[in-house]
Amino acid sequence: MHSEDTSRSLRESMRITSVNVGNAETIFHGRQSMRTGICKRPIAGSVDVTELGLHDDHVLDSDHHGGPDQAVYAYSADDYEWWENETNRDYPAGLFGENLTIRGLPGDMYVGDRLLIGDLVLEATSARIPCGTLATRMQDRGFGQTFRKAERPGIYFRVLNPGPVSSGDSVTLVEGDDGKVTMLDLFRFAYATSHDADQLRRWLEAPLAERVRGKIEAALERLSAA
Fold it and tell me: Of 53, 78, 159, 177, which is most buried by a Cβ count within 10 Å?
């Protein structure tokens, strides 16, 4: 357990407020169009979650999204309320392309922290970094910068134990033993122009998503070359 907050899993009352899946769709903004699976919509009933994600959920850009280390994307219902208060617009569940909308999801999770949802076990692996697809989805070319400033990225998970999930399920946080790197650490790393080599080496000891691990290793190589 992380020594600075060993009771967090007891204090947090988490619950799934929406389970969202997406089909392949073409979305447009101005003259730009793209084929994507980002348009997730809430569904009723139970959905099976495997090591590659939710049943019938579509991931088109497999170079940057999906796969075993980023099989499930979760976003906080509380953060959606923050966006609504900040922008005076509606933010329905699934708008950011998340599979699970969770009330009480902490934004300060560490890589290696786990969520227990019945038989389903998820392990946090990385933060979401915004891309042009999200900006197109939001109909705002500058939304990537807005998302960056907000520092409410949501969390990717790998599936350690498959199982069903449905809206209304309770969620238990189990903190990992690593405590080396948080979601905000990784989110800020994506934009940083300088890095600390010792810190990056410590981060590599955590169970990171492989895409993120590769970027950290590349940053270390650049530091060594310099």
Answer: 53
CA gap 213, 125 in Å, rounded: 10
Does residue 207 lie within any of the structural domains?
Answer: no
CA distance readout (Å), 138 to 131, 133, 141, 143, 208: 11, 9, 8, 7, 28
Confidence check: pLDDT of 116 > 60: yes
pTM of the predicted model, to two decimals? 0.92
Name the domain count of the chain.
1
The single-letter code of the amino acid at 216 is I
Coil/strand/helix, residue 104: coil
Tell me the average pLDDT across 178-202. 94
Dihedral sign for Cα atoms in the order 144, 148, 149, 154: positive
Domain assignment of residue 208, yes or no:
no
